[in-house]
Amino acid sequence: MNAMTLRHTLLATLIASASLMAVLPSTAHAYDTHSTSALNVDAKGVAVSGYDVVAYQTVGAPTQGNASFMAKHEGATYLFSSAANRDLFTANPAKYVPAFGGFCAMGVALEKKLDGDPTAWRVVDGKLYLNVNKDVQKKWLEDVPGNIKNAQMTWPSIKGKAPKDL
After folding, report:
1. Is-contact 58 85, C-beta < 8 A?
2. Closest by Cα among 117, 105, 108, 119 to 163
3. pLDDT in tens, 53-111
4. What are phi and psi of 117, to 5 degrees?
5. Range of the domain at 132
6. Strand partners, 70
7. How many domains does the chain have?
8. Signal sequence span per UniProt (predicted)?
9. How many Å apart are CA 28 and CA 119, to the nearest integer?
10. pTM for the predicted model, two decimal places
11. Are residues 102 and 75 in the same domain?
């Protein structure tokens, strides 16, 4: 399969996944397709659907945060499972914030801003990457370095655009 056909197949998979997510009931996600923000936050400004971004690196698993332990960073509110995790975050937020503002890393590699699912994640070289779902994550995992490189090249040109415009 040539690169263009593969790109179209992956893009079709991403669009189908995002469309399916749009019709399924969702309590945690509040993905705004009209927002031009570089941060993927819900209507209350909470990032990563309230999951503790420090726990991905300290516990190695998605861990729901608690509003009792929160911190704000660059316009987003982050929730943590403990005061210790909140303190680690406030000491070095850049170490813990997700890549690409919490949008799907594979989507960004394909010039799309798709919601990031906190349960479809991977820490690579100390950086948290989210994907829109676990099926898309499987494709992303096939070439992590290449997909990160593509996403890093694409991100500057799409980060200020609304997802609906991509």
Report:
1. yes
2. 108
3. 999 999 999 999 999 999 999 999 999 999 999 999 999 999 999 999 999 999 999 99
4. -95, 120
5. 98-159
6. 79
7. 2
8. 1-30
9. 12
10. 0.83
11. no
